[in-house]
Here is the input.
Amino acid sequence: MNLQKFTFIPNLRMIKPGSMLVQRPRRNRKSAVIREMVAENNVGVQDLIFPLFIIEGENQKTPIQSMPGIYRYSLDLLLEEIAECVELGIQAFAPFPNISENLKDKYASESYREDSLYLHAIRTIKAQFADICLITDVAMDPYSSAGHDGIVEDGKILNDETLEILGKMALAQAEAGADIIAPSDMMDGRVGHIRRELDDAGYTEVSIMAYTAKYASAFYGPFRDALDSAPKFGDKKTYQMNPANGSEAILEAQLDFEEGADFLMVKPALPYLDVIKSLKETFPLPIAAYNVSGEYAMVKAAAMQGWLNGESAMLETLLSIKRAGADVILTYFAKEFAELQKKNQR
Ligand code: PBG
Here is the structure.
């Protein structure tokens, strides 16, 4: 890390307050035009990826209690929602499936069944919106009867056996038309395994956005409500990272880099801005940050109480993630941000 030394300018100490200050940083803040001209960072709609929740059925749009403004959509309505977002300038989407309980099993076999809700949705979305970027989720938890990201045997999560399932899932998603495969499971070696599976099948152009530094976080609660995917026992601490650790993120990033990742992701974003910054400074790959469900819920909840200005808090949140070094941000604020930007352009 570059720690710049503080330089002491001795003669300024002698100056009477207000008389002869040479440096007055406030001059660069005196008007909106200048403030914008000298802004070091900004957020644009092209930086954002919008996560979406898919459910079975037709004409279904169900609210998620803990995520005001975010819904689960059946495919027909999801296509309309995507069309609206595209109109607003959003070009990248990360769909997640809500799988009915009776389709879940120990091996998440629904995750690579050709006509599954998710794979069918990917095919349909891609057929209708050829130009958008679809980032698909590889992880067992939405399809796992245990609600875990790996195969569970005697209460333990098996690593290498899980890789086989993740490989099949990734391949099925590539076949369905995914542009970027995003493994969110945190098994060791999964990026390399998925890369090999994709390459062997000829999908050398399908990218991998690795959930590189994914922490065992309390901020995923609302997402698990949305998918009904909370673990049925225990927690995810034997595979997701300990919030106490920063250097370990470098190790995870080094491995993902060597195994062929195209993007490195940090998740959640706000409590881990330092990790975003250190990965950005260390690796020559685009850095993604996941502004997760709980971060969204906090802002929304406070705004609904009138405890803070939701719009300003949203903008400041996204900007801080960019300033830390993120190139792209997965955020539930994407549509609201795009709407606000459009409104301000008029
Ligand atoms: C699971 C997954 C989670 C999220 C994305 N993929 C939750 C978890 O690990 O339990 C969380 C996203 C969010 O909170 O917005 N593979």
Notes: DSSP finds eleven helices and twelve strands in the chain. The chain has one domain: 42-345. The chain has a mean pLDDT of 95.
